Amino acid sequence: MRTISMIVVHCSAVRPYQTSSAKRIDEWHKSRVTHGIHWKGIGYHYVVRRDGSIENGRPLSEPGSHVEGHNKHTIGVCYEGGLDVKGKEADTRTPAQVETLRKILEELHQQFPKAVIVGHRDLDPTRKCPCYDVVKEYWDLQPVTE
Question: Which is more confidently placed, 68 or 12?
Answer without folding.
Answer: 12
